[in-house]
Amino acid sequence: MSLNETKKDEQKRVDNVAEIINDKIQKATDDLAKAHSETGKIERNYGENTKVNTFEVDDQMETNASVQQQKQLVYLAVENENILESNKLKLENLQGSPYFGRIDIVEDGEKDTLYIGTSTLQDDDGDFLIYDWRAPISGIYYNGTLGKVSYPTPTGTAEVDLKRKRQFQIIQNKIKNMFDTNETVGDEILQSVLSEYSDEYLKSIVATIQHEQNTIIRDTHSDVLLVQGVAGSGKTSAILQRVAYLLYHSRSTLSADQIILFSPNRLFSNYISEVLPSLGERNMRQVTLNEFISLRLTGIQVETLFERYEKDERNLPETMVNMRLYKESADFLTDLENLENKNKNHLLYFEDIIFEGRPFFTKEEISDIFESQNKAFSIPDRFLKTKNTLIKRLQKRIRHDRDDDWVQAEIDNLSDEDFQQIITDHKIEESTNQRSIIAEEFLKDRYAPIYNALINNYFFDPYKEYLYLLSHMQQDIVSQKIWDTMIEAIDHNVEAHKLSLNDAIATLYLRDYITDSGINGGIQHIFIDEIQDYTMAQLKYISHAFPNAKLTLLGDRSQDVLTSAYRNKDVITSINELFAKKHVTMISLNQSYRSTAEITNFASQLLPDTEKIKAFSRKGEVPTVKVFPAETDYYKGLKDTARELNKKYETVAILTRNQAQAEQVYAHYGDESLVTLVTADYRSVPKGILILPIYLAKGLEFDAVIAHNVSAENYPDSRSRDTLYTICTRAMHSLTLCAEKELSPLIKMPTEIPEKVN
Ligand SMILES: Nc1ncnc2c1ncn2[C@@H]1O[C@H](COP(=O)(O)OP(=O)(O)OP(=O)(O)O)[C@@H](O)[C@H]1O
């Protein structure tokens, strides 16, 4: 059959499937509308039923049962609606581009043809029109080359003969491109996808997943999956595809709420928010490290890594570096833990529990309880026993106070409604001592803040405890004087309700250790993007906080913008050491997809010889270097360049080293409506000419990038290399480097490329 005829046949099939999808969407819309009105009815009914009987004491029990039943009905109706909604979303995702792949196989002598798309579609007879890309057999499409291949089945590995692999690019139900290929995914379609201009949101790569990316996506065995991938190699894309894959693979046991992604900043969270919905899945939870810590250390303002970088990006004294490296290590946390248990006579720092302005339990009383515990027990054990004693004392107090006059008087003063509410809430049956029970419940409600304070360990001060341990630490990193100054500085910080990131992590770890808390066993997967920004202490804390979670850690050792000025050890080596007892799988991605070959090759030159990147064969403009002799020429040249680029590209990002430089560039724009100064508060990236420090552009990409002032002064030596590399690799189609006076020695261009402007 000629290629034309084949295409005609394939187009016929697309038309046919498209029609079926449309019909199914129509039906799904009708079903959903019906279900919605049904839910409305049940909800109204529930509302009426719950109101009617609560005042009639005799009807209480009946009301309770009926309320439960109604609640269950509402729950089922809402659940049903959610399922219909999700099915409809999946169909809508297929609309216009129902599938992207086809495999022809021979299995046990039988021929079969399978089409692969974002989700499964069956016709009315139950035949598969489209296979979900995550189905075990679909793995062949991404992994296998023609010939004998295998795929996992519930009963073991199945062998098939792969006869053909065909790729489609279908837009608005028209086949735009179609290729038969032996590779994972042939270059032609990838070329076409990568040539597109940048978008506000990252797109799914489901149709063009590459072989090594597929390994990351489908890994289900590793405790720790560690990916070192060069800039633009699809790490973030792979995370999102992997989440979708895991949700499918473990659909009966895993939900999106049990997955957390630690993302570098809010802009990034928004940037990636569309991928999972486009694959028919809900987004996982997303949090930045600072948000995560702030939620756990309420009332304390934790310094962000960005703020710290702005303060001491360069010229950090050696003593500071040494102290910082120690406090960022996993050993530091272990040392704190060991020290805590060393002095058996040490009394923890307790606090009064204040109730209605007066101490309910004084710290002396709490200390006495702690002191009376057997010192042979560990500190956490003695803490727990203290806490339990306090809870018992509270319960005793409730039993004691219930007959007090003031309590009886308060109960007499309760409105009928409140009185009934206590009976209903606590399911109190009628009996002779009903009034005492009511008094007890009333007191429990009244004393709830005390109970809450006990449960949440508010009677213990982890900050003072941390400072105490620091002051008793035997360290030979810096002189005692410098160490003491550091402790004093933390003390001042705590007074002002502030803490650095390192101290916050250490305090949290210590608090969790002593109080045996802070553990979330329900989370099954943790993903961390930009892992090079994390310290081993942070990773140790995260894995302690989520003991049942498998970790997927992705990063690029060459994009260490925030800590390369002082860190001396490779992050990948450190992670391997930290998780030495776990099943760690390490995967490298060396091919970059984001940028044109010219940009990738240019950026690659900035790195040491050992870390060369493989460029994807997408052609584009050669990067331009412009050196201006004086400051006035510089800013004029920079602005002209941005304006020119903006005629061709919708987004042009001027990337600077830090916030101060971004503000400086912004100040040179007389008319502010022409540009946007993007700050840490931004939640989405606007179009046009943008100015932002590189750390806010982490993980993002832009059509055109201008690197601001790549002068010898601004990027003097190899410690600036990561920053420069990260800036250059944000560009998809066009990269311009502007420098004032002398060019940075890091930039080595073939002599014909620099376009000197005088
Ligand atoms: N298999 C693929 N098919 C199509 N596009 C891809 C593929 N892999 C990566 N890309 C594209 O390459 C670009 C870079 O991908 P991504 O942001 O996931 O890389 P990254 O490794 O996280 O980058 P960085 O570390 O530089 O932030 C994105 O536009 C993404 O859509």
Automatic annotation (TrEMBL):
GO molecular function: helicase activity
NCBIfam families recorded: HelD_BACSU
SUPFAM superfamilies, per database record: P-loop containing nucleoside triphosphate hydrolases (SSF52540)
The keyword Cell cycle is annotated on this UniProt entry: no
Taxonomic placement: Bacteria, Bacillati, Bacillota, Bacilli, Lactobacillales
Binding site for ATP: 229-236
Keywords associated with the record: ATP-binding, Helicase, Hydrolase, Nucleotide-binding
Pfam families: UvrD-helicase (PF00580), UvrD_C_2 (PF13538)
Record-given protein name: ATP-dependent DNA helicase
Top-level taxon: Bacteria
Start and end residues of each UvrD-like helicase ATP-binding domain: 208-596
Source organism per UniProt: Companilactobacillus mishanensis
Signal peptide region: none
Keyword Lipoprotein: no
